[in-house]
Amino acid sequence: MVNITINGKVVRATEGEMLLDVIRREGINIPTLCQHDALEPAGNCRLCMVEITRTEWDGWKKYVTSCLYPVEEGLIVSTHTSELHEIRKTILDLLLANSPHSDVLQKMAEEYGLHKTSYEPNLEGDNCIMCYACTRICEVLGKSAISPVMRGHEKVIAPPFGEEPPDCIGCLACAHICPTNVITWTDENLTRTIWKKKFELIACEKCGKATISRDFAEYLIEKRGLPKEYFNTCDDCKRVELAQKMGALVDKAKEVAL
Amino acid sequence: MRIDSIDKLAAWRDECRKRLDSQKKKVLVCLGPGCLAGGSDKILEEFHEILSKKKITDVTLEAVKKTGCHGFCAQGPLVIIEPEGIFYTKVKKAHVKEIIETTLEKGELVEKLLYKERNGDGTDHAIVDYHDIPFYKYQKRISLRNVGQIDPDRITDYIAAGGYSALAKTLSSMTPQEVIDQITKSGLRGRGGGGFPTGRKWATCAKIESDIRYVLCNGDEGDPGAFMDRCIMEGDPHSILEGMIICAYAVGSREGYIYVREEYPLAVINLQNAIDSAREHGFLGENIMGTDLCYDIKIARGGGAFVCGESSALMKSVAGEVGEPRAKYVRSVVKGLHDKPTVLNNVETFATIPVIINEGADWFASIGTEKSTGTKAFSLAGKVKNTGLVEVPMGVTLRKIIFDIGGGALKDRKFKAVQTGGPSGGCLPEDKLDLPVDFDTLTKAGSMMGSGGMIVMDDRTCMVAVARYFLGVLVKESCGKCVPCREGLYQLHKLCTKITKGKATEDDLNLMENLSRVISVASLCGLGQSGPNPFVSTLRYFRDEYMAHIRDKKCPAGVCRELITFNINDQCTGCLACIAACPVEAITGEKKKLHVINQDLCTKCGSCYEVCNFDAVDIK
Ligand SMILES: Cc1cc2nc3c(=O)[nH]c(=O)nc-3n(C[C@H](O)[C@H](O)[C@H](O)COP(=O)(O)O)c2cc1C
Ligand code: FES
Ligand code: FES
Fold first, then answer.
1. ipTM at complex level
2. What is the CATH code for A2-80?
């Protein structure tokens, strides 16, 4: 365990854990857009920046992204200086300029007193903020079906060559993790379309409702060792089935008791 | 010959030197990038063609050879005749016969090809030996010592020039720690831009427990206009290898890469040749020079992005991943390529190492300034007379480089600013010309050393347009991963464009200043952190010019199209030249009568201004 100081208060933490986690554990609120507990930190959004110093630094300080900064003994951290306010506000301002229609960003910017962007808004801009959450989660799944392509302001998240991603299994992890809800998909009858690729959805044996994509089911069977039969029915029917089984048990117990 | 013991090298060197000394005269044909563009490969061919048919005493075919960039590109294609150092400039294929007949056969000079230096009274005088030309006189060449002097494809040339003697000295008489101590003591700082102490980097790497360590060389050279590293890779590749091998010995590495940008195909070829022949002669591979040292080098080719020169992006690219900077607070010397301790140094840094080992740390530290020791290579470009490759002791003034070596602004126009440090460097005005050129002074003045690009600008340069240009480069080169760099530089560039169009307000300028500060502190890698520099440094020294665009809607340098008008004054002789040149037929007039520009039609392309021989076109 190490001792660090956050906003004047001495706090104990485990050496090597990320500063952001410690700060949040203390109930201090710092906005973030690219951090997610299921993912390795990436350092893309830069909102989590804090100021650090040490006594022996003699007044010298520096700004670091707390999501990636491993804590160490003697760290002195400030999370809410006026300069940090300015940094976070500017970052939100820039993001808002590029995605003026994003309600997520609008709400965050409001908290910094920004009602509209200071820059010329890109009215055609989509809401992607390049946090890489989608590509990172896809990588965690071992697929890396999509990735950032091009450079700079032209950068987009896309499948290889902009075509149907061969490695995509239609699991929707990317769409669900996206903080600004840019990744869209459609489920129509038993067909799912995402990244322009079509997937067959497994129909529940009991109720006929669409469940997950067949490719995803196969992935879970192979990689996560789930039993094949698991994917025959939908979650709702599984629950009903379970309730029925429980009911039967109860009935039996009653019978026995009688 | 395989050098399987240290002693063998000395004998081989004697042999190589004897062979070279037996050539009474040598003809060096520069095949550097500048001269090659002027057709110097044809010149070399012509020499070989004629000399293969004609026997001349004292000149063997082997003695006519290609070299890398000799430095004075503005005067190229260059042909140099040693031992006299006769310096022939702007040589064409057609001149070759004359050079052979006059100089090689009769020992006389081809007067018209000699370099002419301007006298104070406007007349010229010819200089024969290039050592006496001001461009060369004030230079001190350490990293460029062999570039332009040897044939990069002949390891025997490098050996004759003392090559691999530093490696022999290292292996026979120094411990790894002693090597590190020497480099530390020499004060050498990395030449790739950051100026990090090389000895300290090596010491850190050597200390970390690890089974594998890598030694990598950064030959990405992404600065547009810079070509120092290219010229060393093309012109003296063995010096880089020797530096890397010494480093491998010092830190305990068995494997390394040279990362070369895709745009440098000749560098790749020459380096690969050098690697192959070094391996063949026992300087690379298993049991180097018969010792226990084993180290080998491969070439990794870059994707051509500027950001790939950044250390963590480079290592990802070498590992076959996307070349994006890594956002972790661990240094690559601790966890670098494949997460192993890694030394990454610049081409020029490695090329300097053998000289430090041979001449000693104290000797190196005595050159330059206390905190920036040794010499630094620069590529001089832009509106300067003597464009080319120069190497000077650290601490000489910008004035010395630009005026004494560079000959001052082109066409004797007024010097306005010099841009150093690559796209994210800064611009320094005339009153900073007496600053000594070293890492810390340039940074303090708001620019930076960078890798050594130096672009001279004259009074016809608009500093706002310059800032906009470099920001544009950075917007394209930003990797796009982090918000401040991707979106921030994009907006900064847009606002700068707004100024050049005369549409910006003072509020915009404030917004830009604030934004610049945030981009610098909040960006992930060095590109973003130094990205606002072109704007910040020009604003610092040329605020009036910004205000002229914003308040008066004027571009004082007459560059920003939206803010200027062209008018013909009474110097006009009525020569019709501008009328012919105008692409939109906006100029009317008759022969020998004053011409007039129709402002409604004028697109401000500047063609009339360019063609007018009578200074009759005003830009306001
Ligand atoms: C955006 C960016 C581009 C860079 N490009 C280069 C380059 O082209 N060549 C180079 O040697 N160093 C470059 N660097 C510096 C490297 O990251 C690294 O510091 C250097 O190669 C270390 O070698 P040195 O200590 O010998 O200078 C760049 C840095 C940044 C941030
Ligand atoms: S949360 Fe740390 S950079 Fe985005
Ligand atoms: S290319 Fe010949 S002198 Fe530079």
1. 0.94
2. 3.10.20.740
